[in-house]
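Why should sequence recovery work at all? Because a backbone constrains its sequence more than one might expect. Tight turns favour small or flexible residues, buried strands favour hydrophobic ones, and helices have their own preferences. The token representation captures these environments compactly. In the example below, the structure is given first.
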């Protein structure tokens, strides 16, 4: 594909600062990479599909540029004529070409990001975490205080499955090969022969990618999704998590004495994949057991491979170097009887550890491919494995071999501390309504004549707290319960088994979706008591975590937690968990419920209220942020989001979901993954120790934001929930129907079998608006809210809002995210999707409102931010978005035509396949889905 027409936005720019020159050089190299990959893809299309298809691709691209740039009506007609004249098979080939270009452009961008990241690091001599440590030192926080902070800190990215994750692992593998080839060209001075071989290898990989299915042919099972998620541990987490913690430990020791103890492993991975049952009937007790086995198998295999290499490295001979007595004892217990290793105690000790770890894997019933040199007794706990590795460490340190101890052994010891035998902490999650029905069935069976569902909240609380204190079982072996109740009880039994088998860190949290009251939390406590994870004496082996999701629930969250922490029987459970209570906040559903502005504000206010409640009760608050990948679901830059929290909301521990569709962009490359992990750690440190403990710089800011939120809420609800016919408009003008045909997840798109917006999951809701390029959940209501607020407050007006933007991180983040999402939107493209609505009056009424709000939002946003155009303050992203449109827009145009065909009952199966391919390509072009 020809890329010679990509506009140069720097031709007339005369840089005079070193960073400007560097940015321009990076941009030029990015365009060189895109041109290279585009040229290879173009050659591939010409070779594989013929010159006619290649020429057609070029015509469509150039016409699309004219349409997008100028909303040119002639270009629109020309584009429609081209698309109408194509056969279905031609259309599919065109779609594949543009989709693959989006994927290849992403690779080039990722490599450019790595290039710039390395350049900054070389210039500054450090990364973002090291820079934050410098700030901490300047603020008077010394290394001992930082070590003390990390002792109780927790930074936990939690990987979640995603019902609109469109990328196949097979295509990701090919893309990673292409990225590796580009990376090598960047870092190594190739000879002419090597350069030619590299070109040929690139062409081979692009051709293989072209001939690989972009779409899955079969539906994924939950365990398929688990396996896909585990691949990111191989790519990034297993090595980069230990390296990051060790690097931080080294930083804290610079210029001072070595600390008495090692830095606490504050970075712990979490997962929902295989434990999240909310609306997913396919996550059962057996699936959860399978998930835990797969996780354990992956980490055990890693340990064994590392031990195998470590054994080959530690060839230290006993007659050439002293060893400790405890190391000798460990070596003597080894089952390795090879005469070749008789004088090599470290190798013998490693062989013994290897044998014991293999026996442990067999005991845990997890698959491994390696076999030991002899039999060993299984480890009873991960602490026993750590103790043996510590013996190796101490012996090397005490005998002047610190540099050896700091190699592979150090990373392995840290990995064992971070990942244990379970790899990731699996959360179990279920909707409060399911828990309620389960408890109702158990209570009614145990108390004939009772109707639990008919009881009021206070009566339920009294009944449940009495049950918590009771030593008798609630479940009877003589009662036949419903399948749903048995399924729930089986999951809790499986969680108890996991604690016994893998340790309590295997499943440390039980999350209650749509938590609306105290009884929702107490119901879970009673169910946990039935399987022994909660004891009548007031001890709990697991955290009970409410998830507040809707606007109404966020507003009630502080009052609910105030009453819960005042309830003696529940407070005992919290105290048994170290007086730490986790609360999860849902960004996705609150956005769908109340719109972007109100969702962000109510989340912020909920945090302010929770901080106050928890301080009064002397309980430590740990917030779990359920952020999505897209702005419409709480996404956006992680660092900005964390430091924009109200004072006291981040106080050491924080957990954040990493949603399925952006896990691959963040963590499939080890270097990028390490940087993203650093960002989370640095932001947590910054927000916890370096930010003022205040809700906002001035009280007037809170008042103004509250008023803006109410106005935006009214505008959003007025459109989405109160406009007659809006549901029909949504289902007609987006790909929501067609999403269900894609084999892209294991979870249904809707909670119930209805078309109601209330029952639709937030992820496909946002996904659908992204596909038609409106991105409505990420901005709607802001423009009209600002206009009305200024009309009501003429004495403050726009200058006051500009002050908010400059002085308040929360407001700045809110607008920055809108800036990003609006830049990816296109009202011209969206107008074509509106034409899919058969009712012309409905179409004009609703799209007219959306168009007016879109223009108003952009106008007010630019005014407040002091910009002439969207993304003016982020030139790198601005160029990225602009470069993508010529390849992204045609996919939208084709998608509209194919949707028309499909909805007109065209029986050609290639029509649906074409739609599915466009969904994939548009998702890649936008770099997020839902």
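From this structural description, the recovered sequence reads:
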């Amino acid at each position: 594909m020809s890329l010679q027409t990509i506009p140069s936005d720097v031709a007339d720019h005369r840089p005079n600062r070193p960073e400007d020159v560097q940015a321009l050089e990076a941009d030029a190299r990015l365009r060189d990479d895109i041109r290279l990959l585009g040229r290879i893809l173009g050659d591939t299309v010409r070779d594989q599909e013929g010159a006619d298809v290649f020429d057609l691709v070029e015509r469509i691209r150039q016409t699309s540029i004219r349409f997008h740039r100028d909303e040119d009506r002639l270009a629109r007609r020309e584009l429609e004529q081209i698309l109408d004249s194509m056969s279905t098979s031609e259309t599919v080939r065109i779609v594949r070409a543009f989709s693959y270009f989006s994927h290849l452009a992403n690779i080039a961008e990722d490599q450019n990001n790595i290039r710039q990241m390395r350049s900054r690091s070389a210039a500054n001599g450090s990364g973002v975490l090291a820079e934050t440590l410098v700030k901490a030192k300047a603020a008077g926080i010394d290394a001992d205080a930082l070590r003390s902070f990390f002792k109780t800190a927790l930074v936990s990215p939690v990987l979640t499955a995603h019902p609109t994750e469109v990328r196949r692992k097979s295509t990701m593998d090919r893309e990673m090969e292409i990225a590796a080839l580009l990376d090598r060209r960047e870092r190594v001075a190739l000879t002419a022969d090597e350069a030619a071989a590299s070109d040929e290898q690139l062409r081979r990989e692009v051709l293989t990618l072209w001939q690989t299915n972009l779409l899955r042919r079969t539906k994924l099972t939950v365990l398929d999704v688990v396996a896909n998620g585990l691949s990111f541990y191989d790519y990034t987490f297993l090595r980069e998590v230990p390296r990051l913690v060790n690097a931080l430990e080294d930083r804290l020791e610079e210029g001072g004495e070595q600390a008495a103890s090692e830095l606490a492993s504050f970075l712990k991975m979490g997962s929902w994949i295989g434990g999240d049952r909310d609306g997913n009937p396919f996550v059962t007790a057996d699936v959860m057991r399978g998930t835990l086995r797969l996780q354990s198998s992956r980490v055990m295999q890693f340990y064994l491979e590392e031990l195998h290499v470590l054994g080959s490295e530690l060839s230290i001979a006993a007659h050439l170097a002293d060893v400790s007595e405890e190391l000798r004892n460990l070596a003597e217990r080894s089952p390795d009887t090879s005469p070749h290793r008789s004088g090599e105690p470290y190798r013998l000790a490693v062989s013994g550890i290897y044998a014991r770890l293999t026996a442990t894997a067999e005991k845990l019933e997890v698959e491994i491919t390696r076999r030991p040199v002899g039999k060993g007794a299984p480890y009873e706990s991960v602490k026993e494995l750590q103790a043996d590795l510590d013996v190796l460490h101490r012996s090397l340190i005490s005998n002047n071999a610190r540099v050896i101890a700091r190699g592979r052994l150090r990373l392995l010891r840290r990995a064992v501390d971070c990942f244990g035998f379970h790899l990731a902490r699996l959360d179990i999650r279920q909707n409060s309504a399911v828990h309620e029905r389960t408890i109702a069935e158990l209570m009614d069976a145990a108390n004939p004549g009772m109707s639990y569902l008919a009881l009021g909240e206070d009566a339920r609380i009294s009944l449940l707290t009495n049950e918590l204190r009771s030593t008798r079982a609630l479940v009877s072996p003589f009662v036949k319960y419903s399948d749903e109740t048995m399924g729930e009880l089986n999951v809790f039994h499986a969680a108890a088994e996991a604690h016994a088998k893998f340790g309590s860190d295997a499943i440390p949290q039980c999350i209650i979706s749509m938590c609306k009251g105290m009884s929702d939390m107490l119901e879970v406590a009673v169910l946990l008591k039935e399987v022994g994870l909660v004891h009548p004496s007031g001890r709990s082996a697991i955290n009970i975590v409410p998830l507040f999701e809707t606007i109404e629930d966020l507003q009630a969250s502080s009052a609910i937690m105030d009453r819960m922490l005042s309830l003696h029987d529940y407070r005992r459970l919290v105290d048994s968990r170290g007086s730490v209570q986790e609360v999860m906040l849902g960004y996705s559903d609150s956005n769908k419920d109340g719109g972007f502005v109100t969702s962000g504000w109510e989340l912020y206010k909920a945090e302010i209220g929770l901080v106050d409640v928890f301080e009064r009760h002397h309980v430590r608050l740990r917030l779990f942020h359920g952020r999505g990948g897209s702005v419409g679901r709480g996404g956006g830059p992680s660092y900005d989001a964390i430091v924009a929290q109200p004072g006291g909301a981040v106080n050491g521990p924080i957990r954040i979901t990493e949603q399925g569709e952006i896990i691959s962009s963040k963590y499939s490359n080890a270097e990028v993954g390490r940087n993203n992990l650093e960002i989370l750690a640095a932001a947590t440190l910054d927000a916890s120790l370096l930010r003022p403990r205040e809700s906002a710089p001035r009280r007037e800011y809170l008042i103004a934001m509250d008023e803006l939120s109410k106005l935006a809420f009214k505008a959003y609800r007025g459109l989405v929930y109160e406009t007659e016919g809006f549901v029909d408009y949504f289902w007609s003008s987006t790909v929501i129907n067609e999403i269900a045909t894609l084999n892209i997840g294991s979870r249904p798109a809707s909670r119930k079998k209805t078309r109601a917006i209330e029952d639709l999951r937030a992820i496909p809701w946002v996904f659908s608006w992204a596909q038609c390029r409106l991105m409505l959940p990420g901005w709607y209501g802001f423009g009209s809210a600002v206009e009305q607020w200024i009309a009501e407050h003429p004495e403050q007006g726009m200058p006051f809002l500009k002050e908010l933007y400059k002085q308040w991180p929360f407001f700045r983040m809110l607008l920055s995210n809108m800036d990003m999402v609006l830049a990816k939107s296109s009202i011209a493209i969206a107008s074509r999707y509106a034409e899919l609505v058969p009712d012309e009056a409905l179409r004009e009424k609703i799209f007219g409102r959306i168009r007016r709000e879109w223009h108003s939002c952009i106008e007010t946003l630019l005014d407040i931010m002091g910009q002439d155009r969207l993304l003016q303050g982020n030139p790198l992203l601005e160029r990225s978005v602009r470069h993508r449109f010529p390849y992204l827009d045609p996919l939208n145009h084709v998608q509209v035509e194919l949707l028309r065909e499909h909805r007109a009952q065209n029986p050609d199966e290639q029509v649906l396949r074409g739609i599915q391919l466009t969904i994939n390509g548009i998702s890649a072009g936008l770099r997020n889905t839902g």
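A few observations help interpret the result. The beta strands are 154-159, 270-271, 425-426, 428-431, 509-513, 543-548, 580-586, 620-626, 653-658.
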